[in-house]
Each structure stands twice: as structure tokens, then as C-alpha cells.
Amino acid sequence: MSPIVATATLEFVAAKSTPALLLKRAITKGDVTHALTPTHDQKIVLIVICVYALAILVLWHIPYLKVILLPFKLVTVALHEFSHAAAGLCTGARINSIAIDPDEGGLTRMTGGKWCCVMPAGYLGSSFLGALMVFAGFNVLASKIVSVMIGVCLLATLFWAKNWLTRVITVLFVGLIVGLWFTPHGTGLRYVVLFMGVMSSLYCLWDIVDDTLCRKVNESDATKFAQKTHCSSRCCGFIWLLVSLVFLVGAILLGVAFLKDDPAL
């Protein structure tokens, strides 16, 4: 083969081997179908997610039984406030305090920080953490790793806590996480992490809808963000709602696609 022909052949092969074409060849329709087809164990997890969601929605609207969900709601509020604090800390703020009140509300006080990062971080951060727990629920090892992350978040919340309710809730759930590590094969930890993930995701979605789309709450994060950006609070809430939905759906799809085999089982 002459040098000219060889050079032309190499250029042709290089042109055909761009990253996009290589990716297209590597991932076929069959690969995607196989990745998104749940295994027997994953089907059980998907059923459990649906049962959790249905149970939460039912208990949510029953006057006396909804007290069962109260501790989990308060943990979700703690994660919401931690997300504000974490965003503030990352943007140079000094965190003064975190408090949770009996009406399931929370307040994070800080000095400094970037408001454009801190205000959306409550809803989006806690919904991301919820989605992360749902993703981890497909695998025992992943659940253990994420439980450590959630434990660190709660300990940070405890460090900034300025009222007894916040302290008690965070200590109880850190203790619960530690205790569940000793259940056989970590199964108890896995399903509690999954429940907390579903609870956190649904609570964030409901809170966004309730505070911004159904009724306008003057002290909500979306209202304050809207005042800063001169945008509609409902528009902000709708965008945050979509992002939270993407987190939840993405967590389920990624869990099915990437956590096929559970080495702990």
C-alpha cells in the first residue's frame, strides 16, 4: 500500500472513530433495554417503593394516624435545613443556627453566603438526598454508604441545632441508622433508607406544590427567591418541582440500570 493510500485510510478510520460514533456503537438499543429491565430483586424494590408511596399518601391525610409519619417528616425538614446550611457554607456563609419547630417547619440562620444558591438549596438539596436514598435502596452496600452520608448530614445539623426538638430528632435517627447496621445482611437498613428516600422525595414534591402552586406562602423559599429575581413564585416552584421529579425518576432508572447485582445477598 502506498503512503498516500495508507494515510487516507488512517484518516478515514479516525473520522469514523469519533467519541460520538464509538459511544453509539457501544450502546445499542438492546443494551438499553437490558439495562432498564429490572431483575427479580429489583422488581421487589419497585413494588416496595409503590407500597411506601401509597402508605405515605394515605397516612398523610388521616388525622390521627398521620402522627406515625411525623418523625420522618421532621427528618426531611432537618435535611431541608441542612441543605440550606451546606449551600451557605459552600458560598462563604457563617451558619448561626438550625431549628425545627413542632409545626414541621424549619429555620436556618446564617450570615453571608450567596442567596441565589442558598434559597433553592432547601427544596432541591433535600429532594436530591431523597433521590439518592431511593437509588441506594436497590442495593445493600449502596444503602450502607448513603446511610453514612445521611448520618453525617444529621450530625452537622445537630452541631448547628439550637432547640431540643432538632437535637432529639437528629440523635434518634443517627442512632437508628447505627442500630440498623447490625441487622442481618443490612436488610433492615436498606429498607429504612428506601423509606426515608421515598418520604423525603414525596414530602419535597408536596411541599413545593402546597407552598407555591396551590397557595402562595409569603415566607416560603420560592416566594423569597421570586422577590429577589422579580419572577413569579409559582414559576420558581414549578421549575423546582420539575427538577425534583427528574431527581426521583432518575434515581429509580439509575438504580435499575446500575445496581443489578447485590453482593450482600
Automatic annotation (TrEMBL):
Return the InterPro entries for the record.
Answer: Peptidase_M50B-like
Bilayer-spanning residue ranges: 44-62, 128-157, 164-182, 188-206, 238-259
Q: Which Pfam families match?
A: Peptidase_M50B
Q: Does the keyword Transmembrane apply?
A: yes
Keyword vocabulary terms for this entry: Membrane, Transmembrane, Transmembrane helix
At the top level of its lineage, which domain of life is listed? Answer: Eukaryota
Q: What is this protein called?
A: Peptidase M50B-like-domain-containing protein
Origin organism is Coemansia aciculifera
